[in-house]
Design a protein that fits this description.
Radius of gyration of chain A: 21 Å
Number of helices of chain B: 14
Structural class of chain A: alpha/beta
Distance between the termini of chain A: 38 Å
Number of domains of chain B: 3
CATH class of the largest domain in chain B: Alpha Beta
Strand content of chain B: 15-25%
Helix content of chain A: 25-40%
Mean pLDDT of chain A: 96
Number of strands of chain B: 24
Low-confidence stretches of chain B: none
Largest interface: A-B, 32 and 29 residues
Strand content of chain A: 25-35%
Bound molecules: flavin-adenine dinucleotide
Low-confidence stretches of chain A: none
Number of domains of chain A: 2
CATH superfamily of the largest domain in chain B: FAD/NAD(P)-binding domain
Strand order of the largest sheet of chain A: 6-7-5-16-17-18-15-21
Radius of gyration of chain B: 22 Å
Oligomer: heterodimer
Mean pLDDT of chain B: 94
Chain lengths: 378, 458
């Protein structure tokens, strides 16, 4: 058996959180080992819808989202490869059977402005003049010009490649089954017996993070869920903003975006069953049907198109829909960043930078209290 | 007791024989086909208003075509036949269909998939020009619409269909400029002992060659395609290839029909989570079945060319076998002697197919070496060069990863036509056997599904 791989920081989980953290840790000069069961960015980070949106998040999350937003804007230069970030705007709309949502949107916009996120509330003729393809049931929209979407299939791998170029070691096909703190070092064992050691451990294992945390006596209730996705054949590029419905009803929570080469990506409605142990999740055909039903309410023109593929991916949800982010209060050197509850793609680069900063300097300006690993009690 | 429902997908020879077997056992199966009429690929019916004879349409197979059509007519009232109905998904013991904008989930005890095959294609520089068709497409033009794909047609590829369709064109009076086969003639000699198990099929092949030679069609074997020439405005104007002795040749033509034998339509089996295994002789991934056609997922049976390409005649055999297996699993005993003789017949077709794979191999090295600027995925317009970059720059280690970086196989056909070649390219870049590159995983829907589709919960 070869000698253990030693580094300053070991990261378990090569999604966008782990890959971007590895990249930013290298910028702080720390040596990094990134460990991934399969291939980088194949789980939630590679299968998600691709929304890079800030609105709709809790107001207290905006500093983190803003930080991420700045990185997305410069991603191409930073990473030396294109992640297809398209800042074509993001819009949340509500249907006319829930008029109370207009007030909620206006209220949100006022508070968001204080955090530096400009939202424009559009109704009636103004809304329809700008977006004539919206359905008659759409009552109002909240438009964010400085958001958009990116290509999930490219993002996490691009961070990992840039991290490698900067000197990080990335081990794919490396599933960590054993994790313990022995003396000053964490010792991690892969299922084939290879060992990795580091005085700092960052857990970015998404829906699977609970299995690692348990080994340190920390229990987190993480519910795996799998949002329903589909994509159409390409049609001429015509729809700029990424668009989603604001509603409390899961079945009518639908969203779509058009990529520059023409395909329309659709997401939402009832989520799919998932089997994290087997790394599998399956779209239910009935959810594809309800997705169609509600997407036609949002934009009836889409009824002229056909989907060519459906898919889903597994994401970890916390009971309060907020991520777990920050140092463990039980085990010195242990850090968590997981459970992004269906909204972590946009945050990803910001999380990586924040965790790297926290690990390298011991502090960050980003408010992390709401995400404290201790908030669920013990 | 819950009613046992059996669904058959595909009304080709396999599906019709399966349905017939079920009807004989007292079951009323649901028979689904996306086509307007029964018959499947080879015994495709001509459109209404056309009156060509069986002999004109089906040549040497006229009697078989008539028998399959007659069987369909005879059971028509005893099956729940749903034409123009796409089977697009399988989930939780139900087959999802779509017809006229309505989706329905049909529960089944047994699902017999007889989905047939489509052409296996090889990317060739210029194959994305107007005027290039698959062999299947060119045959459909002839059978369904009685028209040729061009005024001077070159047939290129390998396999029995290459000669068959070319001969059908000759008989229909079309101008066939040449038949270009990538396989050297000597391979047929090596394959002959295998093919001798079915002498009449072997002779049928010899007959095709005679038809072509009598018509003065140039037949070149052991060729290597160089490019299909032409322009974006006017389409194909000619073809360039090197002949068996290594000399470059050029020929004018305005249409090219290409195909390298067939590949099974395995999407439904994949969506139903059946296991697949790599089949070395054909270099394809095939669903795993037992001899009778039972797949590895409960209640799923596979027959005909959709399970393994064994040809139309064998499709009738495996259709019957799969239905008998489904019946026996539902506790309806069949005739063991009949089963034995069907199994013996199937074994002969398998040996014949082994011969075909030797005589007309898939020229995988041509796929692996296609020039960088050649389009590999026509739906998404991705070149071989871009695909190769996903390996040497992107670090892709297998074909799903390469797809995710480059979009190869992500378009309308979902990798049906580029999947085989892209796996060869990825494997060659990594200097690994092609099976190490894996296979593109299928996602629903099996074919594009309109967003206007509404669910019928009747
Ligand atoms: C279908 C879908 C749509 C979504 N849409 C959006 C959206 O539009 N916008 C948005 O902002 N967010 C969206 N999200 C959420 C977003 O994708 C996730 O929040 C984000 O990708 C989480 O990143 P991650 O790195 O934490 O998780 P992941 O990408 O899941 O990465 C975790 C990694 O850890 C690895 N791992 C787990 N256990 C081990 C182990 N023991 N050893 C080694 N490696 C291990 C896994 O293999 C995995 O690669 C969506 C999620 C899904 C599933
Ligand atoms: C283009 C082409 C030309 C051929 N020409 C000849 C020839 O001339 N002579 C010869 O001997 N052999 C020929 N073959 C081979 C021959 O067609 C097959 O061996 C034979 O048809 C196999 O029968 P089958 O019942 O397995 O499938 P098929 O006859 O192909 O029937 C499959 C049926 O399933 C239906 N189907 C498939 N998927 C779905 C779905 N998801 N939902 C609904 N319906 C579905 C299709 O519409 C089709 O009708 C040809 C094959 C091809 C592809």
């Amino acid at each position: 058996m070869s000698a253990p791989v030693q580094s300053d920081v070991a990261i378990i989980g090569g999604g966008i959180m782990g890959a971007s953290a590895a990249f930013f840790l290298r910028r702080h000069g720390l040596s990094v080992t990134l460990l991934e069961t399969d291939k980088v960015g194949r789980q939630a980070s590679g299968t998600n819808f691709g929304n890079v949106r800030r609105q709709g998040r809790p107001i207290f999350q905006l500093p983190l989202a803003n930080r991420a937003s700045r990185i997305w804007r410069t991603a191409r230069e930073l990473l030396g490869s294109d992640v297809e970030y398209l800042q074509s705007g993001h819009m949340r709309v509500c249907f006319s059977d829930r008029p109370e949502n207009v007030g909620a949107m206006e209220d949100y916009a006022t508070k968001a402005r204080e955090e530096g996120l400009d939202l424009e509330i559009l109704t009636g003729n103004t809304l329809r003049a700008r977006f004539p393809w919206l359905g008659p049931e759409v009552l109002a929209g909240s438009h964010s010009a400085m958001d958009g979407h990116a290509n999930p299939r490219l993002a996490a791998p691009a961070f990992a490649r840039a991290a490698i170029a900067a000197g990080a070691q990335v081990f794919e096909d490396t599933r960590i089954t054993g994790a313990a703190k022995i003396g000053d070092d964490f010792e991690l064992e892969a299922d084939d017996g290879r060992l990795f050691r580091a005085p700092v451990l960052l857990v970015t294992a998404g829906a699977w993070a609970g299995k690692i945390a348990t080994q340190f006596g920390e229990d987190f209730a993480i519910t795996p869920r799998a949002p329903t996705m589909s994509v159409t054949e390409p049609v001429p590029y015509a729809i700029e903003p990424s668009l989603g419905v604001m509603t409390a009803l899961e079945v009518e929570t639908v969203y779509f975006r058009q990529v520059e080469r023409g395909n329309i990506v659709i997401g939402g409605s009832t989520r799919a069953p998932s089997y994290p142990d087997e790394y599998r999740s399956y779209v239910l055909p009935e959810s594809t049907m309800t997705q169609f039903e509600h997407i036609r309410r949002l934009a009836p023109v889409l009824a002229n198109l056909s989907i060519i593929r459906v898919w889903t991916g597994i994401e970890g949800y916390m009971d309060d829909s907020l991520p777990v982010m920050g140092p463990s209060s039980n085990v010195p050197g242990l850090y968590h960043a997981f459970g992004f509850s269906g909204a972590g793609f946009q945050l990803g680069p910001g999380v990586g930078e924040t965790m790297a900063e926290l690990i390298a300097t011991g502090a960050t300006d980003i408010p992390l209290a709401p995400y404290s690993p201790d908030r669920f009690g013990k | 007791m819950v009613e046992k429902r059996v669904i058959v997908v595909g009304a080709g020879p396999a599906g019709i024989r399966a349905a017939e077997t079920l009807v004989a056992a007292g079951i009323r199966p649901v028979l689904i086909d996306e086509g307007r009429r029964d018959g499947g690929q080879i015994y495709r019916r001509q459109p209404d208003g056309f009156t060509r004879s069986y002999e004109t349409l089906y040549g040497t197979e006229a009697a078989r075509a008539r028998a399959v059509h007659d069987t369909f007519e005879a059971i028509r009232d005893r099956i729940d036949y749903r034409a123009e109905t796409l089977a697009w998904n399988v989930s939780d013991g139900r087959l999802w269909t779509a017809r006229d904008g309505e989706a329905e989930a049909i529960p089944y005890s047994a699902l017999i998939v007889c989905s047939g095959a489509t052409d296996r294609l090889l990317p060739v520089p210029g194959w994305n020009r107007a005027g290039v068709f698959s062999l299947g497409g060119s045959q459909i033009a002839l059978k369904a619409q009685a028209c040729s794909i061009g005024s001077k047609v070159v047939f290129m590829g390998s396999g029995p269909l290459l000669y068959l369709v070319a001969a059908q064109y000759v008989k229909a009076g079309a101008n066939v400029a040449a038949v270009l086969d990538t396989s050297p003639f000597m391979k047929r000699v090596r394959a002959a002992p295998f093919m001798a198990v079915l002498p009449d099929l072997l002779f049928a092949g010899v007959g095709l060659m005679r038809t072509l030679k009598t018509a003065g069609v140039r037949i070149a074997t052991g060729i290597t395609p160089v490019s299909i020439e032409g322009s974006d405005d006017t389409g194909v104007s000619g073809i360039r290839y090197t002949d068996g002795s290594g000399r470059e040749q050029h020929m004018d033509c305005d249409a090219v029909a290409m195909g390298w034998h067939l590949r099974p339509e395995t999407q439904l089996a994949d969506i139903a989570r059946c296991d697949f295994a790599f089949d070395a002789p054909t270099r394809q991934w095939l669903p795993v079945t037992d001899d009778d056609g039972r797949a590895t997922s409960d209640g799923i049976y596979l027959a005909g060319d959709g399970a393994r390409v064994l040809g139309a005649r064998c499709a009738e055999v495996t259709g019957r076998l799969a239905a008998m297996a489904a019946l026996s699993d539902m506790g309806i005993a069949g005739d063991p002697a009949a089963r034995q003789s069907l199994l013996a017949e199937k074994a002969r077709y398998r040996r014949f197919a082994q011969g075909l794979a030797i005589a007309f191999p898939w020229p995988h090295e041509l796929a692996a070496n296609v020039p960088d600027d050649t389009v590999v995925c026509r739906c998404e317009a991705v070149t071989a060069g871009t695909l190769r970059e996903t390996v040497d720059i992107g670090g892709a280690t297998e074909t799903n990863r390469a797809k995710s970086f480059s979009r190869v196989g992500m378009g309308r056909c979902q990798g049906r036509y580029c999947g085989n070649a892209s796996a060869e390219i990825v494997a060659a870049m990594r200097r690994e056997p092609v099976e190490a590159a894996g296979r593109l995983r299928t996602q629903a829907p099996v074919k594009p599904l309109s967003i206007a589709t509404v669910r019928n919960e009747a």
